[in-house]
Design a protein that fits this description.
Layout lengths: L1 H6 L4 E5 L12 E5 L5 H8 L4 E4 L11 H17 L3 E5 L13 H11 L1 H15 L4 E7 L1 E3 L8 E3 L10 E3 H10 L9 E6 L1
Parallel strand pairs: 1-2, 3-4, 4-5, 5-9, 6-8
Antiparallel strand pairs: 7-9
């Protein structure tokens, strides 16, 4: 996502938890390394921004991620404090009411069993975001792949049964999230996204 944002000419402040996870060097890129409970570092990253995009992930299928939940709480409250209006949050298909849009077998196996813990964390984060004063958009992609982006995908906020392969390349998710910076069609909505 960082590379795509730089290609579009954006000034990017990337807040990362692990030093070296972004190797890109660019005059329009500032990298801040810190934990999600370090409000001063987060404020430095958020202050004077026009928008924030979160692609935070917990990294475990079996353990909750209180650090990420606290991090989203901190990001949202600091955005409100610093009057940064636009927030794009990467969630997952199966979170919130999108669970009912999935085929029964998928819903039982993935949502209720395999992804139960990370989806519970996304639900907590989505609820906090929805209560905020921000112009938020929640992106709920299907299964992420490392395939090259195609630019061809389905998206929407209507409540309909999803059909076919619900995977999508990470590059397409990043491109869609960046589009939301200038497209307000999905403000205060959760959006499903898949190939």
């Amino acid at each position: 996502m960082v590379e795509q944002a730089l290609e579009k000419g954006y000034q990017v402040v990337a807040y990362i938890r692990k030093a070296g996870s972004i190797r890109t060097e660019h005059p329009n890129l500032k990298v801040i390394v810190g934990n999600l409970n370090e409000r001063l570092n987060l404020t430095d990253a958020i202050m004077d921004a026009d928008a924030c995009i979160s692609a935070l992930g917990g990294g475990s299928l079996t353990h909750h991620s209180p650090e990420v939940i606290l991090g989203i709480e901190n990001i949202v409250s600091l955005m409100e404090q610093e009057v940064v209006p636009r927030f794009i949050y990467l969630s997952s298909l199966g979170a919130g009411d999108s669970k009912s849009m999935m085929p029964l077998t998928t819903r039982i196996l993935l949502v209720n069993v395999m992804l139960r813990v990370p989806l519970a964390d996304h639900n907590t984060n989505e609820q906090r975001i929805a209560k905020s004063k921000l112009k938020w958009t929640v992106i709920r992609p299907g299964a992420l792949t490392d395939e090259p982006g195609t630019g061809i995908y389905k998206h929407g906020s209507s409540k309909e049964k999803l059909q076919g392969n619900v995977s999508i390349p990470r590059a397409d998710v990043a491109a869609f999230m960046l589009q939301q910076l200038t497209d307000e069609s999905y403000v205060k909505k959760a959006v499903w996204l898949y190939e």
